[in-house]
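Risk register update: the risk of archive-format incompatibility is retired. Evidence:
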Amino acid sequence: MTTEYPFQVVDSTRKTPLKDSGVLLNRPFTRAPASFADDARYFVPGEELELAINTAIAVGEPLLVTGEPGTGKTQAAYFAAWNLGIEPVLHFQVKSESTARDLLYHFDAVRYFHDANVRREDKSLEKDRYIERRLLWEAVEADTPRVLLIDEIDKAPRDFPNDLLHEIDQMEFTVAETGQLVSADRSKRPIVFITSNSERRLPEPFLRRCVYHNIEFDETLVKNAVNERKREYEGLSGDIIETAILRFLELRDLTLRKRPATGEFLVWLRMLALKVDAAPFRLDRDLSDLPYLGMLLKDHQDIDDVRTGKAL
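Archived output:
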C-alpha cells in the first residue's frame, strides 16, 4: 500500500474484501466537530459582527448576515445561541420551493377532509387537531427567547421575504383555518438570524426591517478560525500552518470561477495534518504543486488553470 495517502482504505491491489469494518468506524472526520452546534464554541465573530448581533438583540429586529460561502454566516447564529445559553437553534433551511407558511404551521387538509367525510354526522371535528406547528410558531410560544435561523433566504421564491414581513416584524400571525392568533410576549421575542449568499437582491421593505451585517473575508478571519481549531491540526508546525494560510490567500487572489472559502481551507488543513506522518509534502513550491488541490477548488476548469499556470 502506498504512503501517498494517510488514510487509504480503498486499495485496488486488494483481492479480497476488507474484513475489518472497525477502520471505517474510526475515520478521521469523526474526530472533528460534527455539527454547527458542536463548532459554536470555537467561532470567533469579530468585533463588528458581535456589535451587529448585540444591536439586533437590543432593538428586537432580525439580523441579516451576508458574505461569501464559508465566512461563518450560519455559524454566527449557533455561536449566539451557545454564548447566551439558549440552545438549540431553531434552524429553518430555505429551499427553492419554500413558502412563508412552512415557517408557521402545516394544516393537513387531506386527513381533515378524509375524517370529515367519514364522520359526516359528527359536528365536533376540530381543525386544530390537524395543525402541525412549525419553527416560527415554536419560537413565538417558547418560555424563553430562542434563536431562530432562516438560512439562505435568497434561495426562496421571490414572494417568500414579502410574505413574512408582518410575521417577522410583529412576531404574530393568524392561523387561517381556526382564526387563532399566535403572538409573542415582547420579553420573550425570538432572536432572528437571516443569512443570504446575495444570489439575488432582497425586497426593500424586507431589508428595512433588518439589522444588516456583511462578513468580509480577510486574513484575520482565516487566522482566527485556524487558531480556535488548532487541536485538529496537531502535528502541523506553526510554520507549516502560516505557509498554508499564505498559499490559500494567494490562491484566492487568482482569477477563478469559484474562490475557495474558509470552510474548504479548514478541511484541507485537516488533510495535511493527517498526511504529515504518512508522507512528506511541501507548500513552498508553485501553487500548481499544492497537495490535494481538489479539496480547495471545486471547479474542474479552475483546477486545470492552476495546474497549467493559466490562472497564475
